[in-house]
Write a structure and sequence with these properties.
Layout (H helix, E strand, L loop, with lengths): L1 H12 L4 H14 L2 H4 L4 H9 L6 H6 L2 E3 L6 H12 L2 H12 L15 E3 L12 E3 L4 E3 L3
Parallel strand pairs: 1-2, 2-4
Antiparallel strand pairs: 3-4
Amino acid sequence: RKEFVDLYMNYVFNESIREPFEDFMRGFIRGCPARKWKMFLPVELQIVLQGHTKFDWHLLEKNVRYEHYSKFDRTIRNFWDVFHKLPEENKKMFLAFLSGSDRIPGYGLEHFSFCIADRQEENPDDVCLSASTCQHILFLPR
């Protein structure tokens, strides 16, 4: 039985995917030369490619910049009160809305920041919440 299990595991995890993995590896190495990736440990490379999956939401709040707001404005206080009460999955969805990804880039949360801006519309009730994903700006009407 042990030999059967060993052979089956080898087939599933090695032999059955050898050809597609080699195709992937050739393409990856062509776009990202291997000598540059060798400086990373496997766990570090995973973080560089996929981003961080653990979050400190209070640190994120601390790193926010404000434009036409201060962190003491009622709108901002209400925003963070509601945000911190959201389930984890909804917080990740907010992050995806803001940045285009539900993960923090490899450089880490302590260096990730975004801006909450007020466009100073004449009638803020007619304006929807929006974001600039490239610049990490959340346009939050009053």
